[in-house]
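Morning run. Coffee first, then this:
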Amino acid sequence: MLFEVKDVDRRYYAERLADFLPRKIIDIHTHIWLKEHRAEPPPGARGQTWPRRVAADNSIEDLLETYRLMLPEQEVTPVVFGWPERDANLEQTNAYASRAAQERNLAALLVTTPDWSASEVERRVKTGGFLGLKPYLNWAPLGIPSAEITIYDFLPHAHLEAADRNRWIVLLHIPRPDRLRDPVNLAQMLEIEERYPHLRLVIAHLGRAYCPEDVGDAFEVLRPSKRMVFDFSANTSPFVIEGALRAFGPRRLVFGSDMPILRMRMHRVCESDGYVNLVPPGLYGDVSGDPHMREVSPEDGERLSFFLYEQLHAFRCAAETVGLSRADVEDVFYNTAANLLS
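And here it is:
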């Protein structure tokens, strides 16, 4: 078995999720790769290290088995792309995503590096059968300090112009320590929507606003936007999800999981320095040096369920607070993504 589904998981699903989730779901944010596509992180690698502890790889077979185990009453269709960090061989991970998608009639996105020209990006998208781009901040030039990366450092205008010409999806993970509340991010997100009206912009993780403190005045600033869509992958904050629903409405939110990271057994809390993942002791190795990880007691660890369930329950809480209809929920989990992919 890929991983154990315990009684605590079955109860969580049955009591909090089964009657809420639509039967058909599109997961717009999933990673697939094989072990041989990755190496040790190179010097100067950016970003959090804790996601690497969850899975050494995630084949397309493992991804589909994960849905079968965790969402037994749902039919889940993933949008796939490779591992986006600098420890990945982009040639291999993109080729695998392309092949897996074509074999199973799925949609895939191309993980990019800003080193490629626009013509190179177009060639790779078309020959690989991709529907768009998955740029990632860690591919910004290493000479730029992490705190100073802008969107255009890893998603250059030449790539945006190509995406606009071809009406591609662009799934964007925004940079910078202040996340969604960063004024540079907000200005560039609005600029992309205005300057490139034909691409299909999806902001990942609700702009990495995992805690209420990450929002600032972002929803007010972004409220005039018309087309950008937000996935709430790996987001367990009902407060943030509720704010997004009130600002943009249910037809501009889509479900994404960030699999396989969402297989993690955990509960997330927000503290003064940001989010902390509470995990069972010993399950993810020595986490003592990671500010985003903390072990709980063995007894509390037995009560922890899956990251995915925490995310889905957070959305349910927000949806019920806002008063979403059944049709609204089906739009979030299927229809809006289906339109993006059409």
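Residues 118 and 157 are 9 Å apart (CA to CA). Good start to the day.
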